[in-house]
Amino acid sequence: MNIRDLFFIPKDQMKPGRLYFLDGLRGVALLMMVFTHGVKNWIDPAFQTNTTLLIRDLVTKLPGPLFLFLVGAAYILSRDARVRKGLPRQVILMRYLRRSLVLLGFAYLYKIIDMAFGVPWHYIRWWTIDILNAIAFCLGGLAVFDHIFRNKEWVATGYLVCAIVIVLMSPLVAAINFPAWLPEHLRNYINGVPPNSFFPFFKAAHYVFFGAYITHCLTTAPAEKPFTNVLPAAWALGGISAVSLIADLVGRGYGFSVVGLVFFYSRLFLIVLLFVWLSYQFQKRVGFGPILLIGSHTMIAYWIHAKIIFIYYRQYLGHTTWAMSFWLLIKVYIMTFVLTFAYINIKKWLLEKRAKGDYLIKGAVLD
């Protein structure tokens, strides 16, 4: 095996038509997530200033939306691949519902594994609704919506409409006081707040549906100009952001909360879309290199970095300087990359070995 193949996707294995820049963007989102988890949890509040807090917030608010956007993107791409293979839509739906349940199981399994690292029972946040919990439910919701309306001409536009409706409904859902008989854990999935719920459904699903819409636009445009069908959405988001910003500034204090909400999310959607376009340009002109492999295995990389930051380096949480935090970040990046690439190549080796074994068995039977 060529040493290059350990860290790069071999050219002969590059699939034509695949939007590799989305894998690169997923890898970048992971790098930002590592930074987010490290800086937000290691730095002693005494070393924070207004400037550092502003920079921290600008960086740390992006990974979640990017990951959720890419869930919708991955669904469209993988669903289309299965449709091209001729799989029945009912089979495709069940595949994604099972996938959602598996992801939900992993969300809790990751917490259970903390005990193997010596984390005391009472320190494990068993019922926290984190991003993996949100991904599981949002993926299932998108798959169900797509299956129900699959024969409608407007189904692709429906992804965007769902994203907008969820945005507009989010403050209403947040204000709901559910009856006491409804389990708190279930309420946290719907409209929970930190520290019990960081990604309730109505703070996460709109990014997933938006990702599905934009990816549909990318895949239905000419291959050499994939953003052709995205331009109307980009101009619309820019216009809405500008108009709602002006309205919010003029009407501040006069109850224009919906306008402020529209400005906030249209701006976030526009920023996410900008990152998608920049990742396309970067992949086209430079290339993400090893980040493509990391981006296609973000679940294992996410798990590795979280265990390093919150368990291996837990003694540093909440009382380090900026210099120490950046040194810790460098070590976390190195360990995450080394362990993730080791996992990727061991998995590849096992799959190749199994495929070779299957070939030998079939050959023996035929002989």
UniProtKB/TrEMBL annotation:
- What's this protein's name? Heparan-alpha-glucosaminide N-acetyltransferase catalytic domain-containing protein
* Highest taxon of the lineage: Bacteria
The UniProt keyword set, sorted, is: Membrane, Transmembrane, Transmembrane helix
Transmembrane segment boundaries: 20-38, 58-78, 99-118, 124-145, 157-178, 198-218, 230-247, 253-278, 290-313, 325-346
